[in-house]
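pinned: reference chain
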Amino acid sequence: MKRAITLALVLATAPLAALPAAVSAQSGEAPAAPVSVDHAKRDTFAATLWVSGSVVSLNDARIAAETDGRITWVAREGSHIEAGQALARIDAGDLELDLADSRAQLGSLKAQLAFQEGNLSRLQRLAASSNASTNQVEEASAQLDMTRQAIKRAEVDIAQIERRIRQTEVPAPFTGVVAERLVQVGEFVSRGAQVARLVDTENREIRAQAPLTVAGWVREGMELSIRHQGAEQLSPISHVIPVGDQRSRMFEVRIAANDPALIIGSPVRVALPNSEPRELVAIPRDALVLRGSDIFVMRVKDDNTVERVDVRTGIGLDAHVEVLGGLDHGDRVIVRGGERLQNGQAVRIAES
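pinned: its structure tokens
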């Protein structure tokens, strides 16, 4: 009788929203605990190893001068240069004077050649009538051959000077952006001196150093997870360089970088396979409950009550882990709010 009166007083004085909790408290049943769940997944997985990488350009070169001279112009940093356009120019004044001199010498030799050809023809006519000696004819013929050879040398000299004049304009071997000027206007440079750094910003890739232990599972065309500034995407391996460094025991992997956000020099993280792919059951790491030496998860049954399932862990899979035990694909496991739950306790699934 006294209990009924007490319950009636509680129902009369409690707010409507608190009625279910009050009834549950009087009846001895715990209210449904709010929890967050995820699902166990059975699939083909491979362990991964995260390594550091950097975005690099496929074409990044320090362009050198091909002739000596004083710099008259250099493209500014940030300038977009098409392939074949000038990166820098060198004063060609002295070379143009040399070219004019060589062309004058060639003209003189050609005039001498015309005279010697006429002289040889005249001597040959005189020799036919015994009015000129054979020695005179042979000497004139030899002088004519020497002049012809001198003309060829002069033509080669002119071609070389013209080539050096063309080289006073330093061309871009590929389309890119001037990242650095290595000389300034007015400086004198020698052949082979670097004048500017040109970087191809359109064709990029990721360069990562991988330990030799993963070499057996890395192959060209395989898609890898790439992390950059909190975002994750998949990119295929473009090249594997199967040559390990004797000191670091690492080899190089090149991965496609098609995302425009990946500018040259950006640091990234690359997930490399670290085991042979196999079928297994994986759950989020947050679902594991550790109590001393015990490892278990709380599984939500169809009636929204929980049960404890003891498991053993296998390989790590980034945010997931392999579990060996009584879990199967599709099982709901608690990832938040399961630390204090008891077997058979009712739960309420919180919305994601």
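why pinned: The chain has a mean pLDDT of 86. Residues 32-46+278-349 form a domain with the conserved putative lor/sdh protein from methanococcus maripaludis s2 fold fold (CATH 2.40.420.20).
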